[in-house]
Amino acid sequence: RSPGGVRPVPAGERSVVLRAPAPDAEYRAAVAAANGAGWSPYSPLSEAAAVTAPPAPARPALEALDCVRARVSWVPPRHVPRVLGYAVVVAVHGAALKYFDSRSGTLVSDPKDARPVSPGSASAVIRGLSVDVKYKARVAAMNELGWGRYSAFSEIMTIGVPKAPEPPRIELLSSASIRVSWQAVQHSPEVVGYAVVVREGSQVLYYDSRSRKLVAEAEELRPVPADRTSVVINSVVAGRRYRTKVAARNPVGWGHYSSSSEAVTTCPPGEPPPPELVVLGADSLRVSWAPPDPAACVAGFAVMVQGGERLLYYDPQTETLAARRGDLRPVPAEATSAVVRGVRPGVLYRA
């Protein structure tokens, strides 16, 4: 028998399980070995171990999901004995503490009515919350020995409208178009769309995402989708001064508009210098030109060719000359030349 008269552990074993230790008592262990000559001295004592309730979890996170729901999430503590459930307590501004009931997904006043969250979960969705009320949450874990300490409270969360975006940027693309761009707004509940308002001189106009134009009335306008952070507006007027603001919307409602962007003034394009006309073949010519200054004011070019006594107009789709200008498309603004096909030999052409 071993020292103390108890039966020794068989020589082939390398561990033992101590059953029914006292809760919260601190234990250390030492081991001795025996052979035919007797028992060795005991080893030095091990590090201390105690059977306890779970430690307090790390500080949880609390985020709004929509107008009435929020998610509290935490990192499950690693502990032996294993965790059997979690309690979530919510502090409501101006009211007593509330307790999360996992059966109903709501907050209750009496902790006895709150069923714990299952041990396999690391988050819980709380229903029945209110807009513009401050909330914060904390979490505790339970095992067979009882409840551990509560974590620190989360950051304060309020279910509200998005904050105002940063001032947008406005760019002049041509004499008839501008681009408005902005930084995406990060918010919970998530942003579902944006509104763009443009001041044209003293008049306030609103961007319609369906027609992609500016309109005078904001009612029933569809928001710009939340995954977009810029729009191109093609209905601006040359010679006008423009500023813009942006607002974000979530399920709670519209946030405040941003501060105004810098102002830009659209401008009519200048007169291009005389073009150059080069013969390419028996039935084709090339018209080349330099863009006017400023080039940003150009939305496209029209090419007119005089063939003998006739004035003809260039069609960029067919690369031929038409007798009427009509609805011919302009040559793209980035182009500096056009090939004219179907010309007649022996005719004097100017462009």
TrEMBL record:
Q: Which CDD domains match?
A: FN3
Matching entries from InterPro entries are given as: FN3_dom, FN3_sf, Ig-like_fold, Striated_Muscle_Regulatory
- Would I find Repeat among this entry's keywords? yes
What keyword terms does UniProt attach to this protein?
Answer: Repeat
**Highest taxon of the source?**
Eukaryota
Protein's UniProt keywords contain Repeat: yes
Q: Where is the Fibronectin type-III domain?
A: 1-55, 56-161, 164-269, 271-351
Q: What name appears for this protein in its UniProt entry? A: Fibronectin type-III domain-containing protein
